[in-house]
Specification:
Blueprint: H1 2-14, E1 24-30, H2 51-65, E2 71-74, H3 81-92, H4 102-113, E3 120-121, H5 132-141, H6 145-166, H7 169-176, H8 179-190, H9 202-224, E4 230-236, H10 237-249, E5 254-256
Parallel strand pairs: 1-4, 1-5, 2-3, 2-4
Length: 262
Amino acid sequence: MKTTLLSMLLLLLSLPLQAAEPARVLLFGTFHFQDAGLDVVKQLDVDVMTAEAQAYLQGLSERLAGFRPTRVLLEYAPEEDAAVNQRYRDYLAGAFELPANEIYQLGFRIAKAAGHERVYTFDNRDVEWQAEAMFDYAKAHDSPEMNAFNAIIQSFTEEDAQARATLPLAELLRRANDAELERRNMDLYLATNAIGAGDGYAGAAAAASWWARNFRMYANIQRLAEPGERIIAIGGAGHMAILKQLLAIDGRLEGEAVESYF
């Protein structure tokens, strides 16, 4: 009997340990349903409180919950976690009505549909886009890059206004996750990167500050994306454009495409 038990123990010890699967991460970019005026590109509001829009958002949230997320991450800073989760608990209890805010309309719905008791946060605002020195340098030196920058902003603004005036909500959200628009969004910061090159590098410093915030946001995702986790992160399309690039080159995490969920 002892020999049999010893043999079984040795057999178990000889079996290779199965490593936990790497975390799978779905990054969902969205636009501001109500523009707070904080972005460079100013946007028209989209009425997401109509019966049709609410039905679509509920269906979309249920489809995203079908990804079987273990954690739903929202674009709030970790220091806001307690307040956000109090609102989420109130929402589950029927005591908090979702405002016309993309983070609540999608994030809270997805977490509820997935049966979660809490949500998580991943933003960081300690480092914002620090462009004042760049704008001052460009004005003082009549930098031609600013003409290109302003033209890009004008083009984005006009395209966005046209899209919001003509496209249904589903297509607007699909557009927010379009790979070419994400590339153009990131290219915006390269348009001014050469301002002050060789003389203080004000343009590069401004671009680096924006990427620094996004690197911190990605660090918060990495912190929560433990092996075996299935993560959905909801955030602004401008952030997600960069975070998707980081996820694509991250050898420790696996990405989930969003295209099939719309």
